[in-house]
Write a structure and sequence with these properties.
The longest helix is centred in the C-terminal third of the chain and has 18 residues. It is built from 8 helices and 15 strands. The chain is 27% helix and 34% strand. It is of the alpha/beta class. Bound molecules: adenosine-5'-triphosphate, 1-O-pyrophosphono-5-O-phosphono-alpha-D-ribofuranose and magnesium ion (MG). The site of magnesium ion (MG) has 2 residues, from loops. This is ATP phosphoribosyltransferase.
Length: 281
């Protein structure tokens, strides 16, 4: 059985669980269930703290897991990113009292509080900055007001938490993070792992793409295919109406209205867009 780690709490938990449900894995009945055995899929799901997931996978006790890219780098565990999952996007950034700092270099000799000490120490040493890292468990934004640190390094999504305590980001973003599927570095391929990757890839594609159908005059088909090339070329079928064909093609969800405008301009009609429920490409 494939052993898969899933975040049991926090910002990634709900999105990870709905993605796995969509991929056909058995969901847990309630939040107190820590292990789910899904016989049909040949998979055991372990519900763990997102921060611990890279550690388990790195040790090889679990085959794969879902966590954040920031946590994966922070752990320093020997794991690799298999694919990004399109949820849990955030940026890891430096922040300080508004107007007090401009670049990471300003931190030389100062104290920076974070709950991602591995990630921050790596960044500071790459930047050649000698600052003291104060490791805290969470709510690090308060550390400045309480005099424990001169700056913080933390996850920023909307920026609301920072604004609420009068802090402001400075310097370059340290890392763009999102939810990722991970596995142990250089672990051998197994059939269970291939199936997991294909299933999750299918969900990511089904969310990223829509199905587009339209009718167009035969002489405009090359232009139409230029606008909607599809994954492996669109399906073109004859229409009962003389001189017309029907086209069926996958299109990126983002920007699909613009594609419809372009198709309309070259004479396409009956343009329909539908969601893809599931797919395997
Ligand atoms: N507000 C947010 N928006 C989007 N992603 C976030 C947000 N906060 C955290 N994340 C991401 O979610 C992942 C896990 O963070 P989370 O906050 O759930 O864990 P934690 O801080 O260790 O746990 P807890 O907050 O329960 O102490 C990280 O990859 C992080 O980048
Ligand atoms: O930019 P924002 O949208 O405000 O989101 C960022 C906040 O979200 C996370 O906190 P979380 O709720 O996980 O609490 P924690 O600090 O205890 O981990 C993160 O640590 C920031 O504090
Ligand atoms: Mg948190």
């Amino acid at each position: 059985m494939l052993r898969l780690a899933v975040p049991n709490k926090g910002a990634l938990s709900d999105a990870a669980q709905s993605m796995l449900k969509e991929a056909g894995y058995r969901p847990r009945r309630d939040s107190k269930e820590l292990v789910v055995v899904d016989q049909e899929s040949g998979c055991e799901l372990f519900f763990l703290r997102p921060r611990d997931i890279a550690v388990y996978v790195g040790e090889g006790t679990l085959d794969a897991g879902i966590t954040g890219r920031d946590m994966l780098i922070d752990s320093g565990a020997p794991v690799e990113e298999v694919m990004s999952l399109g949820f849990g996007a955030s940026t890891f950034r430096l922040a300080a009292k508004a107007g007090t700092m401009r670049s990471v270099k300003d931190l030389d000799g100062l104290r920076v509080a974070t709950s991602y000490s591995g990630l921050l120490e790596k960044y500071l040493s790459e930047q050649g900055v000698d600052a003291r890292v104060i490791k805290l468990d969470g709510a690090v934004e308060t550390a400045i007001r309480l005099g424990v640190a001169d700056a913080v390094a933390d996850v920023v999504e909307t920026g609301t938490t920072l604004r609420n305590v009068g802090l402001e980001v400075f310097g370059e973003p340290i890392l763009k993070s999102e939810g990722v599927l991970i596995r142990q570095q250089s672990a051998p391929d197994t059939p269970g792992m291939d199936q997991l990757v294909r299933r999750i890839q299918g969900v990511v594609h089904a969310r990223d793409f829509v199905m587009m159908d339209y009718d167009i005059r035969v002489e405009r088909i090359d232009e139409a295919i230029g606008i909607t090339p599809g994954m492996e070329g669109p399906t073109v079928s004859p229409l009962h109406r003389e001189g017309w064909v029907a086209v069926r093609v996958m299109v990126r969800r983002k920007g699909h209205q613009h594609v419809m405008d372009q198709l309309w301009e070259i004479g396409a009609r009956a343009i329909l867009v539908t969601d893809i429920y599931a797919c395997r490409l």
